[in-house]
Amino acid sequence: MRPLLGEEEALAAAEAVRSGWVAQGPRVREFEEAFAASVGASHGVAVSSCTTGLHLAVHVLGIGPGDEVVVPSLSFIATANSVRYTGATPVFADVEPGTGNLSASTVEPVLTGRTRAVMVVHQAGVPADVDAIKALCAPRGIAVIEDAACAAGSTYKGAPVGTNAVLAAWSFHPRKLLTTGEGGMVTTDDPEWAARLRRLREHGMNFSAADRHNGGSAVIEQYLETAFNYRMTDIQAAVGLVQLSKLDAIIARRRELAARYHEVLAGLGLETVRDPEHGTTNYQSFWVWLPEGAPDRREVLAGLAERGVSARRGIMASHLEPAYSGHGSAELPVTEAFTARTLILPLFHDMTESEQDQVVSALSATLHTSRLTVRG
């Protein structure tokens, strides 16, 4: 992954520096409004990362010790960690093999009387079937939080992912299509939650630093609750506004490249990430399943590296990491197969056809050198 950054972003960041206001200020507010509108939400609250956004989403729901939140193990570890930060217990559920996402059928078996929320990840930009999970959870009084870290620009049932989300958290890390270096956003339609999220990200103050500066009169702020320092800077927001203006073009290019990958990989008979029936993916990552009988994924990655291709292991499984050793879970056969047998191929905006051909040629050579029988 190479972020698409250029002179426009550099100039926007420089203008923020020259303005003298580099902390959270007017550019953050402008970015919040523009991003929220782009995903069909009423409110956006910029934060320092998607991880802190997820933490605030769980916190604002009043979830804590003794409560459970269902999460996929097949996700970056921040998904589960954000639940632990509140003292609640993450409960791992399995995922669907075609999408890498939770579904109503994988969530239902792990629900208990202590379940307060389900955190649905739109894995690698592939939209999850959120409506089905909400239909399962709503009668039980269980909230649905959307981890949309990778999903800016993906669609669900014809609308942007995040539309009608109770709470959704987004990432602007450099591996995402829209980047501010580091940074994130929480979107919601609830004005009271939005107001509290803004306080929580800034130490619980009832007046932000920007509001005090622009108030025109002396204001002595109050700190209404124990909170956090999860702010975004105006420098980041300035970059984010430029990036947001490019998002449609970035997605169109990635979908063009993904279509060509599907075409040139067809001869290898590999299963690949694709659009689900209920939406479209932004192809934040392009994963492939290694065929049955393949050698250890590390051997395949090493073979690709020897041929000049830097690929990456597939999506991690949090329950297999040392940080979750001893953390009990249901059996997760799809998750464990997914994390063991997938890898992520290079995909970036200015990738050329010859570079794609190099990737496919290297993958084919690596598989055949290993004397694999590739599924047709």
Automatic annotation (TrEMBL):
One of its GO terms (biological process) is polysaccharide biosynthetic process. It comes from the Bacteria. Signal peptide: none annotated. Its cofactor is pyridoxal 5'-phosphate. GO terms for molecular function: pyridoxal phosphate binding; transaminase activity. The active site is at 176 (proton acceptor). Keywords: Pyridoxal phosphate. The modification N6-(pyridoxal phosphate)lysine is found at residue 176. InterPro entries: DegT/StrS_aminotransferase, PyrdxlP-dep_Trfase, PyrdxlP-dep_Trfase_major, PyrdxlP-dep_Trfase_small. Belongs to the DegT/DnrJ/EryC1 family. This is Perosamine synthetase. The lineage of its organism: Bacteria, Bacillati, Actinomycetota, Actinomycetes, Pseudonocardiales.
